[in-house]
Amino acid sequence: MRWLALIWKSLLRSRRRTLLIVGSLVLSVFTVAVLQSLLTTLDSVTNNPNSGNRLAVRHKSGITQMLPRSYETYLRQQPEVETVCALQWFGGYYQDPRNFFANFASDETTIFQTFREEFGLSSITEAQVKEYLRDGAGCIVGETLALKNGWKVGDVVPLTGTIFPINPRLTIRLIFKSSRPSDENVMHFHYKVLEEGVPRMKGLTGAFWVRVHRPEDIPRLIDRVDRHYANSAYETLTETESAFNLAFVKMLGNISAIIQGITIAVVLAILIVTANTMGTAIRERGPEIAVFRAIGFSASRVLSLLLAEGVLLVALGAALGILLAQAAAGGVRGALGAVMPFFADFEITSATALLCLVGALAVGLLSTFIPAYAATRRPITDGLRSVG
Amino acid sequence: MNANAFDLGEGEPIITLRGIAKSYWRETLEIPVLQGIDLEIPSGAFVALMGPSGSGKTTLLNLVAGIDRPTGGTLEVCGHELNDLDDDELAAWRNAHVGFIFQNYNLVPVLTAFENVELALLLTGLGRRARRERVAEALDLVNLTDKQWNYPRQLSGGQEQRVAIARAIVTDPDLLVADEPTGALDAKNAEEVLGLMSRLNTEMGKTIVMVTHDPKAAHQARHQIHLEKGVLDRAVEVNR
Ligand SMILES: Nc1ncnc2c1ncn2[C@@H]1O[C@H](COP(=O)(O)OP(=O)(O)OP(=O)(O)O)[C@@H](O)[C@H]1O
Ligand SMILES: [Mg+2]
Fold this sequence. Notes:
The complex is a heterodimer of chains A (388) and B (240). With 388 residues, chain A is α+β, with helices and mostly antiparallel strands.
């Protein structure tokens, strides 16, 4: 028998209780891991590392209001601006309404330059870009999306409009790769498709994406653009891409605060459950602890054994919980990744897993230490006397 | 009263108590349990500690075994002045010198007979092989080799107590302490356990201090000490 065997056998003393603790740990670690990952995912939406050079210009009254495309001329004239890209959320689906993904009508002439990090231009050839520019009914799609639907270059994809009453048939001219899966769950097609198919969209767009030369210029530019169009028929609201995305995410409520609140509640609940269970388990073992000490185990040795038991127990629960969450993350990516592009990135990161593990270990140590310490400080003779 | 008042036979003392006192406090009220006990027990003795309930037998035994501390006096056991040892040193001392036998056996329920016996050896520097041999020897001595993979719940009371005896002797201690070792056993099993203890005393030279109510059990010892209200009353040599 080795020390670990001794600890393990003690753990299995009350199978029901061990299962109860492990079970509740699995559930809470699962919940926390999924929630925290959701937070990380949302964070990465609002903190796209590639968005530092970009601004979004939209109508002051909201993202459903349109701006004249002629604003592009003024925007281009600003010395800070590198390029401008008109972009309109199309909101179409492929075959089945549930089979929904991010698709945009965008200015094909500037889209690659504006989002060059996302397109990972190195993998796209000059010839492919030319093909797309040449074909007015062409489209470009990210690899994740293409793989999911089994699309290849040259395939025709019929889109069904939901916001706009057109159903364009688009030919895939290029499949791009990105560093982030969420950026690959996207389709772009020529802006003309929208303008020509939907008369009321002629000369209008939902937003301009503006790429600047240097991020430092952004505040000045924001100020100037919004002042320029103040009191016009179409007032603008210019903001950083991150702020724009944040506004989008904020429509879902103050998710971050809710998630943190739930996390704290879950951690407290599991701490109480574990502490209570551990407390009872250790108190019941008073006589046994006294015997261990009588035959020569020092108080600190018994304490270490009890702590090791507690830690092993929670580690077991945490590990299972994390595995379960990993499995669930795959499901989330599959189910929601296409609906909300950022869910394509949904994963239990190693940081989240580590956080859960460390948190669980802390819960295990905390909940075991107090009753274990008390039990090992108790006089040996007391423990022996309480033998039934 | 002094140590000479009790003649417990020849030999170097293994236990020497000088003016041992033990009190409990209920708030500010002192409840004396043992008062000024002087006693020498020679190495190799088999002593039965007797006396009415509440007279302090268990308390005295616990002091001798180093699981409790006196409130007055000094005691030297197995060559160590116990008052000089801190708690961890005392634990190590117990592991090296004392074997415990309890009324309720006190085996660890989740460990097999073998593992229960091995437990005390985990604290020694012995390797796996050496431990295994020692455990096998001890189990052989109590004649339970065939039950070594049984869990305590799969053993009879008498068998449990024999496993407990194996656990007590596996570290080869000089001193065995037993508090009512036959208290929970029927006559036949009690006899078997007492016979075993006798052999440990005569054949292996273990010094045994045993608390008991049972005259039959006390008869197995070579000396009986009577405790009365916390003081030693008399010592009697058992005639066989
Ligand atoms: N922890 C304690 N706190 C207060 N009083 C105690 C404590 N332990 C023992 N006593 C008291 O000390 C006295 C002696 O107790 P002890 O257990 O030594 O008696 P005993 O001779 O072994 O009795 P028994 O034959 O019933 O086992 C008793 O009156 C008991 O109530
Ligand atoms: Mg007693």
